[in-house]
Design brief:
Elements (H helix, E strand, L loop, with lengths): L3 E10 L4 E10 L2 E6 L7 E4 L4 E4 L1 E6 L12 H10 L2 E6 L10 H14 L3 E4 L15 H7 L4 E2 L8 H14 L3 E3 L11 E2 L2 H6 L3 E2 L1 H18 L3 E3 L5 H12 L4 E5 L1 H5 L21 H12 L5 E2 L8 H4 L16 H10 L6 H6 L3 H6 L16 E11 L18 E11 L2 E2 L3
Parallel strand pairs: 1-4, 1-5, 6-7, 7-8, 9-10, 10-13, 11-12, 13-14, 14-15
Antiparallel strand pairs: 1-2, 2-3, 5-16, 16-17, 17-18
Helix pairs in contact: 1-2, 2-3, 4-6, 6-7, 7-9
Length: 423
């Protein structure tokens, strides 16, 4: 493990209120200095003109292992992560079999360690087998290394089960992450609205998200538990979260690149690459989400990286699976949606990709460049212009809706535990 000196970069460390031209010194896998650093180092990185920040964290990634290794593995997801500047990713539990016990949690940790790239932290299931009926052994999974709980892909439909889950999670002081979708209003292929009617496709109403969210916010308020809203997609959802926060509810939320940049109009091409769950919504929803990110209603940014095989994504729109990938282009996509539109500056954006997600998952205070912290560092060239080419991705899958997009801003180095990682 080399000692590393990163010189002359714009050091942005939201946890410590730092935004200045400075150096960052790393020794024995830890941050030893963020400021004016001198002395010898085995490796010196000149970061002039670049941003040096805590390692980026994505709390919503589908690694597909075990069960669908033809789409992605923990190793290829890790490679995709470090290529995109992420030092930590959280593995969603809707695998086959689901991550609903301590053995499954240990498996994810072991496979992540074997890959030796990004840190891979497992999310455990809220209910056994993700069936929504019986609570999983959250305590045992937490002890095994789970950092939060979710039945992602499905919402917990039963009010009584969700209430008990929040009570249990409250005792453990761990976040429950909910995929808000009322089952009675799901089953479609895209957003319910004029575009779906014109295309003759069955719609998924935003009310399905809003109804479950409204119920859960009441339960979270009653229990005092930590509640996290995954991939917010609808304008009224943003307002519900905003109102709940004003009342003191312990609610956090995330937004994805696609819900900040794309609308249901993209589905008019009938290209299944635009099929995602929750679906792409209206332009008004996009604007509301951006505003929610800007004012802090939405705390963090997460990709919902969801690889799918080419064979399945080539099916007709109504039959193709949901999901799209963006780990390797996320930084530039967020910059396009939020910085280029003057809603955020770089320190704000970095906070939503480091400090804020670190506070949601159960961890050890990662997301900062504080003295003694693990040396997880991302170096970003904010002016680098490049074109998205999915065939160059480290991911096994190619279901990326941004193919051919010309973007600005790109991570150029990813350091995990004091080691420069190259996929």
């Amino acid at each position: 493990m080399n000692d590393i000196l990163i010189q002359n970069g714009r050091v942005i460390d939201p946890a410590n209120g730092r935004d200045e031209i400075a150096d960052v010194a790393i020794a024995k896998g830890k941050i030893v200095k963020a400021g004016t650093a001198a002395g010898k180092a085995t490796e010196v990185i000149d970061a002039k003109g670049k941003i040096v920040c805590p390692g980026l964290i994505d709390i919503h990634v589908h690694c597909r292992e075990p069960g669908h290794e033809e789409e992605e593995t923990i190793a290829t997801a890790s490679a995709s992560a470090v290529a995109g500047g992420f030092t930590t990713i959280c593995a969603m539990p809707n695998t086959h079999p689901p991550q609903d016990n301590e053995t499954a949690i240990q498996y994810v940790l072991q496979r992540g360690a074997e890959a030796g790239l990004a840190r891979v932290l497992p999310i455990g299931c809220i209910t056994k087998a993700r069936e929504g009926a019986e609570l999983s052994e959250m305590g045992l999974m937490l002890s095994a290394g789970a950092v939060a709980f979710s039945d992602d892909g499905d919402g917990v439909a039963s009010t009584s089960v969700m209430y008990r889950a929040l009570q249990y999670a409250g005792m453990l002081d761990v976040a429950l992450m909910q995929h808000c979708q009322n089952g009675d209003l799901s089953g479609g292929a895209m957003n319910s609205g004029a575009v779906a009617v014109r295309l003759g496709l069955r719609g998924i109403a935003s009310a399905g998200e809003e109804l479950m969210l409204q119920r859960d916010l009441v339960l979270a308020e009653r229990t005092g538990a930590r509640y996290h809203v995954q991939h917010v997609s609808a304008a009224w959802s943003v307002e519900l979260i905003r109102q709940a926060k004003a009342r003191g509810v312990r609610v956090t939320a995330e937004a994805t690149p696609h819900h900040l940049l794309l609308t249901d109009a993209a589905c008019a091409s009938f290209d299944p690459v635009y099929k995602v769950n929750p679906p792409l919504r209206s332009a008004a929803d996009v604007e509301a989400l951006r505003a929610g990110v800007a004012d802090g209603t939405i705390n963090c940014l997460a990709t919902d990286h969801a690889p799918q095989s080419a064979e399945e994504k080539e099916l007709e729109f109504a039959l193709a699976p949901f999901g799209m990938i963006s780990l390797e282009c996320a930084v530039a996509l967020y910059a396009k949606a939020l910085i280029d539109t003057h809603l955020l500056d770089w320190p704000d954006l970095i906070a939503k990709m480091t400090l804020n997600p670190a506070a949601i998952i159960r961890g050890d205070g990662s997301g900062s460049l504080s003295f003694g912290a693990d040396a997880d560092v991302t170096i970003i060239d904010p002016k680098k212009r490049w074109t998205v080419r999915a065939d160059k991705f480290q991911s096994k899958s190619r279901n990326c809706p941004y193919e051919g997009w010309k973007l600005k801003g790109k991570p150029v180095a990813t350091i995990v535990g004091g080691e420069v990682k190259k996929p």
